[in-house]
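Obj.: predict assembly geometry.
Materials: sequence records (below).
Method: joint structure prediction, all chains together.
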Amino acid sequence: MTTISETRLSTLQVVSYFFVTVWLVIAAGPFLWTVWGSFKVQGDFFSKADWTNAIYGIFTQRETGAAFTFNGYYGAWIVEEFWRNVVNTSIIVFFTVVISLTIGTIGGYALARSGYRYAFWILMLALVFRAMPHITLVSGYMLPFFEWNIWGLKITTIVVLVAINQPFTLWMLHSFFLKIPKDMDESAMIDGCTQFQAFRYVIVPVMWPGVITTGLFSFLLAYNDYAVTSMLLSKPNETMVPAVASFLGTVQVQGNIMFAVAAVVSSTAPLFLLIMFFQRQIVSGLTAGAVKG
Amino acid sequence: MKHHTFFWFILPTLSAMVLFIALPIVSVIVQSLFVEHEKVLIVSKSCDPFGCTETTKIDAEATANLRADQPLGRFNGLGTYFDRSHLATKEVAKIWSSSNGYSSFLSGLMDLKFYKAMIFTLTYTFTVTPMVLVLGFAIAVGVNNLPKALRGIAIFISLLPFLVATIVGSMILSWMVDGEGIIGALLQNIFNDPTLSIKSSAPLTWIMLIFYGVWHTLPFSFITFYAGLQTVPSDILEAALIDGANKWQSMMQIVVPYLMPIVSFVTLMLLMDNFRVFEPIISFQAEAHAQSLSTFIQSDLREAGNPLYASASATSMLTIIGVIILLTPVLIRTWQDFNQKMH
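Observations (raw structure tokens):
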């Protein structure tokens, strides 16, 4: 009995090892290829003649005298001033996450503690808002923002990103606060706290795991956004993602596509670190809405 | 919670959503009912011994003034919705009457901008979603069979394609499938055709975008299913094993039904996100062969110098209607669940 089930298990295991391996190669391959290639010259990165050139860097050696070159990074960061976009991204992402979490936390807490029907309707409304394609909202912003002369400013984009972030933040924090026992804040209120004091002194100290998880996703939304940032920011306020995309238009013509490759790798590196340190929170956040208990 | 406390707690987040999600939708509705001013023309008559000629000139100053006075443009009612680049009712009727059979009707529709975008968006949504569901489940089962130590690494690697910005991820792939890139060159070698280029053929572009969509969203369904698999009670599986069920049977008859709520959650998320497919088309520079509803809107807004707000807004409204149709089954079900809980 045991031997049969063990042998069958092992064939199944072989199949799943194979399947998972294929997926992992497809998932990681493009990143490894691009990171490696970003230290080469264009002739190696696009090595039609012999793909091993991209690995050994034949042209890179010929053109620069070494197998690795930082020319792409120099071009992107210094010549094309990518560092400005990095600064813009940091400012916009930081304020978006902080504001979004602050107002989302108290809102999500209220939704979790109110048993009335309107709380349900607000959540449904948030779900519909969550489904709106961002570009349709952008087409609503453009004309009024131009008229009021607030188009292109960082602050405008921060406010818009905060708002777009709210539906998701509310849903996530709402389901998180539902898991915190009601008795905790209710007993504080029996002891004479107001609702806000109960929230401030009883709930806030225990809410950080949920807030951090939600914050990670707010960060990703603001960091990765293209639809809003590409349409609402003026050139000097541009963030990394639209800057990388506009490299495609200008840089390709000049034959400096390696600038774009280096910029892409630079903008992906922080995400790599994020996954490394917060993998468990990201996974729990992804599944928060789906898996209960 | 008391009504007035609730009000103050929810006020900041609700006003953010009303001001920057609900009002823009209203603004889109209003904009879609107006259309850009026509250029102000001056007709001047100049006479010479051989007769008089009328010349028409654009009065640039008057046009600019008119535009500044009424930035919305002139009222057009539902005109934009039915014009040639949107619902195009006249053209569709013409194609319908002149076509023989569905395929010729469909190919006629592909010449109309809006329907072309619509057909691509729907094709993308309804091919990527089922593929991601099935493959994601298969990989979740596969990873679940791995030794514990390897599972973390597998999840770490899988998160990369999902969390990277869509525009950046698709750019990485677009360099690889470029005629000079590694995959592009490999395909040219396999098919022995040095002129083969994915980006210059419409069907190949569609396949490439769909492949990208699967690559990008697969981790989400995989990880959610994987987390769900951890919650399947092992005693039920053991009971099935004792009753003589094989692995496949217990998978299909116990695990899959158990995970059904997760499947519907993942499906909802995938439908919402796939319907607004946007960035990959920009990154792959595939607008010539594949327009989605979102890129259609963006290209109108990007119209150099003079954005076509009316056209973009009409498309936006039609897209929003599409989203609502897509969401209706989910909303009805949530509403029923809620009512059941209340009674």
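Conclusions so far: The first strand of chain B starts at residue 34 and ends at 35.
To do: check interface contacts against the pulldown list.
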